[in-house]
Amino acid sequence: LLGIGVLVSGRGSNLDAILRAVRNGSIRGARVRVVVSSDPEAKALKVAERYGVPAVSVSTEKGRAEAEGEILRALESHGVLPESGLVLLAGYMKVLSSAFIAKYADRIMNIHPSLLPAFPGLRAQKQALDRGVRVSGCTVHFVVPEVDAGPIIIQRAVPVRGSDDEDSLSARILRQEHRAYPLAVRLFAEGRLRIEDRRVVVKA
Ligand code: GRF
């Protein structure tokens, strides 16, 4: 069974979508073993609780190295191991060190609310509106040290309407995030993702 750890900072709607997909059997052969939040007040902690998944919060006050040590211990003690586990960033607002990323090499995913490589970084939906693009969407990718730059696993597009504001566009993209992220996890759990030349090949 694939052991999954989910890192969160906020609302937790993607966490919810993944937990639901495990529960209803659309993701098979995997279990979310632990949720780690950078914020003790995050709504995502309540989502974990609803599904009976152990959750901890790890503050970054004492510095990133200390925090990442704690995260690593939380993951390992719940069976999310560097050689065999999967770490999901789901609205996690901290940047992981390259040492941490190297430990879980090709075993960390993130979801980002734009069609990467367009609009990396914060407030991607606002960036898209400001540039007047007609299409945006979301991207699930493997994590590399450069933020939002790793190999792309899945993208889903949505139209951008003239009447959109940041909230309406974010909501339209979020509905696609909730489909894309569980699908990417399912493909990983089924052993169908391979990275070749910085690109992800999906086996049929
Ligand atoms: C999502 O828009 C995700 O793409 C971005 O942060 C947001 C997290 O939302 N990385 P939620 O906490 O999963 O509801």
* Count of helix runs: 6
- Amount of helix: 25-40%
Low-confidence spans: none
What percent strand? 25-35%
Q: Structural class, from helix and strand content?
A: alpha/beta
Question: How does the SSE layout of this entry go?
Answer:
Blueprint: E1 2-8, H1 13-23, E2 30-37, H2 43-50, E3 55-57, H3 64-77, E4 86-89, H4 98-103, E5 108-112, H5 124-131, E6 135-142, E7 152-159, H6 166-189, E8 193-196, E9 199-202
What features would you describe in this structure?
This protein is 35% helix and 25% strand. The longest helix is centred in the C-terminal third of the chain and has 24 residues. It has 204 residues and is α/β, with parallel strands linked by helices. The strands form two sheets. It has a seven-stranded mixed beta sheet, sandwiched between helices. The chain has a two-stranded antiparallel sheet with strand order 8-9. Bound molecules: 5-O-phosphono-beta-D-ribofuranosylamine (GRF). 5-O-phosphono-beta-D-ribofuranosylamine binds next to α1, β5 and α6.
Kindly summarize this structure in a few lines.
By secondary structure, this protein is an alpha/beta fold. Helix content is 35%, strand content 25%.
List key phrases describing it.
204 residues, alpha/beta, 7-stranded mixed sheet, two-stranded antiparallel sheet, 6 helices, 25% strand, globular, binds 5-O-phosphono-beta-D-ribofuranosylamine
